[in-house]
Amino acid sequence: MLKIVLDGQEVMTAEGATLLEAARAAGIEIPTICWHPATTANGLCRLCVVEVEGMRLLQPACIVRVAEGMKVQTRSERVIRARRTILEMLASSVDLSDSPEIRALMQEYHASAERFPGAKRRDVPLKDDNPMYVRDYAKCVLCWRCVQVCAEDAQYTYAINFSGRGYETEIGTFFDAPMPATTCVFCGQCVGVCPTGALKPKREFLLEQGLKPEEIVTRSSGRKQRRENR
Amino acid sequence: MLEPERITRTTCPYCGVGCTLDLHVRDNFIYKVTSPFDSVVNKGNLCVKGRFGYDFVYHPRRMTRPMVRRYLLPVSSEQLSVNRRDAPEWGNRSLMTDPLTTDTSPWDWVETDWDTALNLTADKLVEIYRRDGSDAMAVYCCAKATNEDNYLLQKMFRAIFRTNNVDHCTRLCHAGSVVALQQALGTSAMSNTASEVLLNDVFIVTGSNTTENHPIIALQMKEAVRKRGAKLIVADPRRIELVDFAELWLPLKPGTNVPLFNAMAHVIVQENLVNWEFVRTRTEGIDTFIASLEKFTPEFAESICGVPAEDIRRAARLYATAKHAAIYWGMGISQLSHGTASALTLIHLALLTGHIGRPGTGLNPLRGQNNVQGASDMGAMPFHFPGYMRVDAPGNAEQWERLWNVEPGGLSRKPGLTTTEILSHAHPGGVRALYIMGENPMMTEPNLNETRRHIEQLEFLVVQDLFLTETAVYADVFLPATPFAEKEGTFTNTDRRVQRVRAAHPPRGLSRPDSDIICDLARRLEARLGRPTARWDYAHPSEILREMASVNRDYAGITYERIEKVGLQYPVPDETHPGTPTLFLESFPRGRGRFIPVDYVPCAELPDDEYPFILTTGRVLEHWHGGSMTRHSDLDELYPEARVEIHPADAELHGIENGSLVRVTTRRGQVTLRAHVTEKTTVGVLFIPMHFHEAAANLLTTDALDPQAKIPEFKACAAQVFPAREEETHSPAAARGRY
């Protein structure tokens, strides 16, 4: 065990814990988007940043580990401004309509979706290329969880990864092939960890489109697609 | 974004892993499945069947009204007399005929109400029982149904019809492993918890395509290799996905497990890698066993199974010198005419090296179905009452007689017929009435042409299922049951964990949960026979489990309250016991583990000039067994038709291209299907999945049985392959009678 100071309060914490784990154990809530208990933390979304005394930059709490005597501010003005800006930038380019947790955070941090009015929105057509799930990357915040569970955090299948650079970055398949032509085994681990509804079971999607259950079941029964190259 | 009206937590109805599912429901329609990330068995991970394969519940072809053949209904006071062999090849036409139309056949299905269907069934069963006695009655229980359903169905046939002709599809999957484990150790389940693979430093996977058939256990295997440095040895005729993760792949010819594993034992003894401490204190019969290994040199094994001798030595050394080593196996071991011997050779390896009785070791037969372990535990077998109490051992029947209100000496002490024997005894003077819950023998029995001849010999067949399966088309009465999502109960998974099954919504149409149908029918049977009641009035399935557990001590401490959140691994001897993740810490149920020397007996049918290939059968990720669920699901879009795997070298020799139509023949039948030219199979070996009625692999397989376990040899028979013309797509063999 070692001692750190969280928001002015001395806390005993386990060696090797991340700041996020130490804070949650002490009852201090730090918001996250990309972090998930079943995936390896990568500090991608930066929403969990905190201010650590003696460090120049804000630190992602999900990956920085505790050290003896560390003094940490989890809700300083600088931290809150950073989180608000992150949320505003996300809202300016991504469709967050299926992300109730992120929208709740926007309220909490008084983030305005109109802060960057000229921003280019992520506007890509929905991909509906297999019978099990749809991919709507207009809703993707690039948290990387789907890629991680497809790889070594769960499935060892490696069907999807980042493609493109910078603003053009997107989750995709090799040569942008449709899912049935990839190594995908349709386990749906990616759907299970998606925080924004970008990945969605087909039947949930169809219900949202206004189809009735009877229409969904008759629609899918008897339709056959031959699956190649497997 | 949709909000669920409710989320029902339950257990997956597919393989034996037993993943936890959260069913998201709106308007009595499951639209999404998730899994909690803190679930003990699967940590939030699912496979395609668990996450997306539940839609068979809503398939338009699901049967939701009882149906009887017209000849069973009294027609203007005169009963139609019929001869089953005159029955037409039933087409869809006969499905929905109106009882009032004039153009009718006695074999038409007529939809009816439950009273009519159950009274007709009870009348007919009682008539046959009174006329021909107990031996004429038989039942197939179901590895997909709950523990409670299975317990009640075997109770109905044992307490009312006084027969032990009770079995289920364990006979077709792990019977060889069960008999071997019973003989050598005195029990038959997985010795360790599946997730203990993460503690292994070496593990052997053999005869199991774990990635496709137990996907979530395979994830843990991959993690053990990639993240924890475990070394994996795969012994399998196919280049399955796990080979990509393996230290060593031993591509043996199908059906040559005995020489391979005996040779590994030979090396362990010869290089003195034996754990003598363990052998002295925990086993018996080592001397005769060592003598029996004499001829099984790695070179001898190589000459039979085709695996290089040096690889056999490496595998033996790796396994024997590991700190924690375990063996995981599937049907490739048990589905052989020497399946018992084959499983014994694996048990010997564990006994020689002491890799059993500690966490992270063990002998782990991976069970194929969600509740095949539970159905076996519930006594859905011809030799055992629930809890593996032999029917012919003194003192056992008496306990069940007291519980079931049967007069002393009333229950049969004679071991009954197995699944495979029940149908072959279907003839006048043999089995006359068969009751099938949820199983589909017309897909899953070997040598289907022969099976069909047998099933046509039955006088009365009742099928209780979701769909009009390949078997149900031969039935006289069809009773529509409910799937997992419409009933309460428990499943027991492959590592002996008893978990809850919960209803997400009410039954569709008139369908009823299996246990409900059984109780209703049993009361009608008792009334007709004038028997005191064995008890069929349960307010809730939990009472059924309590009744069973009052005699089956393995389940004694399991209550619905205790498994509300997390399942318990039996044995659970009392209500404070925490369950048993690892078996045999101190001793084996029979005391000492026993070495039982086995010699190599080749498969019943070996390749020759006429049939030069070895045909082996199995499953694919997207489908499940006889296909009654997955073929009625969007899963069928992912994998819509049967394909035969053939090695590129063989394909070239026979002029076969990837995707082209071929005809595969054996001495028993032929099917026409497309070729999948792939190095996943080895030279000289063809592989056909068993799920597709259009090209049923079991039209080809041999019905040779293991003499002890009575398990058929699904994994090896001699076959030939020819290029076929496109117009042969619907071969006569494929277009056999349906509906």
Description:
- The complex is a heterodimer of chains A (230) and B (739).
- Chain A is of the alpha+beta class.
- Chain A has two domains: 121 residues, Ubiquitin-like (UB roll), CATH 3.10.20; 88 residues, Alpha-Beta Plaits, CATH 3.30.70.
- Chain A has seven helices and nine strands.
- In chain A, a hairpin with a 6-residue loop joins strand 7 and strand 8.
- The longest helix of chain A has 17 residues.
- Chain A is globular and about 60 Å long.
- Chain B has four domains: 53 residues, ADC-like domains (N-terminal domain of TfIIb); 260 residues, 3-Layer(aba) Sandwich (Rossmann fold), CATH 3.40.50; 191 residues, Dimethylsulfoxide Reductase, domain 2; 116 residues, Barwin-like endoglucanases.
- In chain B, helix 8 crosses helix 12 and helix 8 runs parallel beside helix 14.
- The radius of gyration of chain B is 25 Å and the shape is globular.
- Helices cover 28% and strands 17% of the residues of chain B.
- Chain B contains 23 helices and 28 strands.
- In chain B, a hairpin with a 4-residue loop joins strand 19 and strand 20.
- Chain B has 739 residues and is of the alpha/beta class.
- Chain B starts with 5 loop residues before the first strand and ends in a 16-residue tail after the last strand.
- Chains A and B meet through helix 5, helix 6 and helix 7 of A and strand 3, helix 1, helix 7 and helix 22 of B.
Number of strands of chain B: 28
Q: Note the quaternary state here.
A: heterodimer
Structural class of chain A: alpha+beta
Mean pLDDT score of chain B:
93
Give the C-level CATH assignment of the largest domain in chain A. Answer: Alpha Beta
- Compute the CA-based radius of gyration of chain B: 25 Å
Average of pLDDT of chain A: 93
- In the sheet with the most strands of chain B, the strands line up as 5-4-18-17-16-6-7
CA-to-CA gap between the ends of chain A? 51 Å
Helix fraction of chain A by DSSP (H/I, runs of at least 4): 25-40%
